[in-house]
Amino acid sequence: MKNIFFPITCFVIIAVILISCGQQPKTTDNQPKKDQARAKPETMLLSAYLGLKNALIADDAATAAKSGNQLLAALNQMNQIGTAAGRSNDYAEMVDDIKENATHIAANADRITHQREHFESLSNDVNDLVDLLGAPQKLYLNRCPMYNNGKGAIWLSETKAIKNPYYGKRMLTCGAITKKY
User: Fold this and answer.
1) pTM exceeds 0.85, yes or no
2) Which residues lie below 8 Å from residue 84, measured CB to CB, with a gap of 6+?
3) How close are the terminal C-alpha atoms of the chain, in Å?
């Protein structure tokens, strides 16, 4: 009887261990949180803007158009939660202007000069939006003094290195950092 009891006891103990190990609740350490899995719309907007800037630097109108569509997608997800009290009209105006310029950029995949014209206004509005909502990452505000017949134009960049989206490869390093976020 002792010989039969020992194998049965071992079998029961092993079965209990296997069953309990297989049904342990999963920890969330290895699972991304909902907030981490989905980027904030403001971050998506900035990412699309920076992608657009980089496409213009590379003189790549087709990629610039795709980034314009990404800007539109990010804007559709944005809301006014982060706006300062009493500034909701400013926010709405900025978003409308960004949508208009992003639409023009997206619709003109074969006209980089036209995209750059809209990028100028877009950059002003994205900069105003960053001023209003804050920068989700380190940014540099750059200015090209020569663009638009010497009137100049600004753009935001994620790097210190000056790479001019208004002239691309023709005048890649024209400009200077005017502000850091």
Assistant:
1) no
2) 132
3) 80
Distances (CA, A) of 174 to 83, 92, 100: 34, 32, 27
140 within some domain: yes
Domain residue limits at 119? 40-80+87-180
Q: How many domains does the chain have?
A: 1
Distances (CA, A) of 148 to 98, 119, 145, 153, 164: 19, 12, 9, 7, 13
pLDDT tier at 88, thresholds 50, 70, 90:
confident
In order of 39, 147, 153, the CA distances from 69 in angstroms are 17, 25, 23
Question: Quick one: which of 45, 67, 46, 47 has its CA closest to 56?
Answer: 67
Q: How far apart are CA 47 and CA 71, in angstroms?
A: 8
Query: Which pLDDT does position 77 carry in this prediction?
Result: 81
Which among 181, 55, 43, 76 is positioned nearest to 119, based on CA atoms?
A: 55
More confident residue, 163 or 10: 163
Residue given tokens 């003109």 in the structure block: 108
Residue 145 is assigned to a structural domain of this protein: yes
Q: Is 23 part of any domain?
A: no
In the chain, the percentage of residues whose pLDDT exceeds 70 is 73
Kindly state the DSSP code that residue 161 receives in the 8-state scheme: S
Domain contains 4? no
* Whole-number Å distance between alpha carbons of 67 and 72: 9
